[in-house]
């Protein structure tokens, strides 16, 4: 009887030792996710906060971000499995869907909710009005992308016909637009940050208006993935969305100075004061979404803007290309 009791104790002791090891291994399971961002910008501050503040790590994620420079290149990387998740304008998912994709690209988390570009003038203007753009050369963004469509939408709201009232240039690659303006092309240019503020600090251009303030709420940049990838990696997508939500809340509740210090390692060539200025500007116009939930009204506004620009191939139902289940779950926790 005593031998049997000792044998049972031995088994229990081994079990007690093994269980923590199993739990530990389960906790240490890490998902690797490759994210392709359409450009590298302070406009995406919550993503960099998620990296710097360890929110991805807390969720057991190893997130590798690469800049894919432009919507077309970003979608090519996603569709060819070069990346798992794309951070890009929501309009790209509509383009893919319209081409009859058997594995559509689905938006599952929103990062920014306004346009992130600014109108930069070559000359300093004390009192700017939109009609001053008439009969000038405007260096715009790539045709068919959200910056260009929002840009034209805003111009039309101010009774400016982009094709008739100004000399519109749209044949410059996304990555080269700033260099083209710096080299003397255009009287006005549509730029992202921090480039716009850097140009202003260096006296090479002057911010005169915000396209984000003018255009209203729109799913400007969202996280999306192929439908098949989402189905096969639900836990990883949920963890990713939760980390982004934590970062969004962190950005919302911390000062521009604190956000700037957190993301500065991502922008080593940009001074801290410029980063802080840009963050403050985006926070003031509520460009950073406070939750990853993409609202249906914003989806409608997106398609209205695309339609106005003549770039909407077909109207797509909200439920067709937007999956809100992950965002709703992490928000409700």
From TrEMBL:
<protein>
    <submittedName>
        <fullName>NitT/TauT family transport system substrate-binding protein</fullName>
    </submittedName>
</protein>
<dbReference type="Pfam" id="PF13379">
    <property type="entry name" value="NMT1_2"/>
</dbReference>
<keyword id="KW-0732">Signal</keyword>
<comment type="similarity">
    <text>Belongs to the bacterial solute-binding protein SsuA/TauA family.</text>
</comment>
């Amino acid at each position: 009887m005593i031998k049997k009791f000792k044998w049972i104790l031995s088994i229990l002791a081994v079990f007690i030792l093994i269980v923590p090891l199993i739990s530990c291994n389960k906790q240490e399971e890490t998902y690797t996710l490759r994210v392709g961002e359409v450009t590298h910008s302070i406009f995406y501050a919550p993503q960099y906060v998620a990296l710097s503040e360890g929110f991805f790590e807390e969720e057991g994620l190893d997130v590798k971000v690469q800049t894919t420079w432009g919507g077309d290149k970003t979608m090519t990387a996603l569709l060819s499995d070069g990346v798992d998740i794309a951070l890009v304008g929501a309009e790209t998912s509509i383009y893919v869907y319209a081409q009859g994709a058997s594995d559509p690209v689905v938006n599952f988390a929103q990062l920014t909710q306004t346009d992130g570009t600014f109108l930069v003038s070559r000359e300093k203007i004390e009192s700017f009005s939109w009609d001053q753009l008439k009969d000038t050369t405007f260096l715009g963004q790539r045709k068919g992308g959200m910056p260009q469509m929002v840009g034209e939408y805003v111009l039309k709201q101010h009774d400016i016909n982009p094709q008739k009232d100004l000399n519109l240039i749209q044949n410059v690659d996304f990555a080269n637009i700033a260099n083209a303006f710096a080299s003397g092309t255009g009287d006005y240019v549509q730029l992202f940050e921090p480039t716009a503020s850097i140009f202003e600090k260096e006296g090479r251009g002057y911010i005169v208006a915000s396209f984000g303030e003018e255009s209203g709420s729109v799913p400007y940049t969202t996280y999306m993935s192929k439908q098949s990838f989402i189905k096969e990696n639900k836990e990883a997508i949920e963890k990713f969305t939760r980390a982004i939500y934590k970062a969004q809340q962190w950005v919302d509740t911390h000062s521009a100075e604190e956000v700037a210090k957190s993301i500065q390692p991502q922008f080593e060539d940009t001074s801290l004061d410029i980063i802080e200025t840009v963050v403050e500007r985006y926070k003031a116009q509520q460009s950073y979404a406070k939750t990853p939930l993409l609202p249906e009204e914003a989806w409608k506004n997106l398609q209205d803007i695309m339609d106005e620009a003549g770039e909407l191939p077909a109207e797509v139902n909200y439920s067709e290309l937007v999956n809100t289940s992950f965002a709703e779950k992490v928000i409700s926790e």
